[in-house]
């Protein structure tokens, strides 16, 4: 499985961005896809996750502002981020949970929210 993340950028407080995670390879083995973010000096944080069955979960920090969705039969997973705050600034990564406890990371995409 290969993951290609894109869509990061610079946005003002209150703005929106959409991140994309395009999967290729043995995508039939993917059970769930999550978006994580990392700020230097802090632990990596899960911000959204969607299962192959369409179930989603979010931490309280982004609930109501971020939405994860799938298209193209699960080939592409989006993270819609609204009402962005400076504390959302981070490098965002997508991660695929696959069968046999395998996991795959995409490259990071930088999101910067200016105040």
Report on the structure:
- This protein is an all-beta fold and 115 residues long.
- It has no helices and eleven strands.
- Strands 2, 4, 5, 6, 9, 10 and 11 form a seven-stranded mixed sheet that branches.
- A hairpin with a 6-residue loop joins strand 4 and strand 5 (45-51).
- The protein is globular.
| Number of beta-strand segments | 11
Shape: globular
- Helix and strand composition category: mainly beta
Question: Can you give the helix content as a percent range?
Answer: under 10%
Alpha plus pi helix count: 0
Distance between the termini: 37 Å
Q: Uncertain segments of ≥5 residues (pLDDT<50)?
A: none
Q: Sheet with the most strands?
A: 7 strands, mixed
What Rg, in angstroms, do the CA atoms define?
13 Å
In terms of quaternary structure, what is this? single chain
**How much β-strand is present in the residues?**
over 45%
The topology string of helices and strands comes to EEEEEEEEEEE
| Overall pLDDT | 95
Secondary-structure blueprint:
Layout: E1 2-6, E2 9-12, E3 17-24, E4 30-38, E5 45-51, E6 56-57, E7 66-71, E8 76-81, E9 90-98, E10 102-105, E11 109-114
Parallel strand pairs: 2-11
Antiparallel strand pairs: 1-3, 3-8, 4-5, 4-9, 5-6, 7-8, 9-10, 9-11
Short account of what is shown:
Helices cover 0% and strands 57% of the residues.
Summary keywords:
mainly beta; seven-stranded mixed sheet; 57% strand
């Amino acid at each position: 499985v290969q993951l290609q993340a894109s869509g990061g950028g610079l946005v003002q407080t209150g703005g929106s961005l959409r991140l994309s995670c395009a999967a290729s390879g043995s995508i039939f083995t993917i059970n769930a896809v999550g978006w994580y973010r990392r700020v230097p000096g802090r632990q990596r944080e899960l911000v959204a996750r969607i299962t192959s069955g369409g179930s989603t979960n979010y931490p309280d920090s982004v609930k109501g502002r971020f939405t994860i969705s799938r298209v193209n039969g699960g080939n592409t997973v989006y993270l819609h981020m609204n009402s962005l705050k400076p504390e959302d600034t981070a490098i965002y990564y997508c991660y695929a949970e696959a069968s046999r406890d395998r996991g795959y990371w995409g490259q990071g995409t930088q999101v910067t929210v200016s105040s």
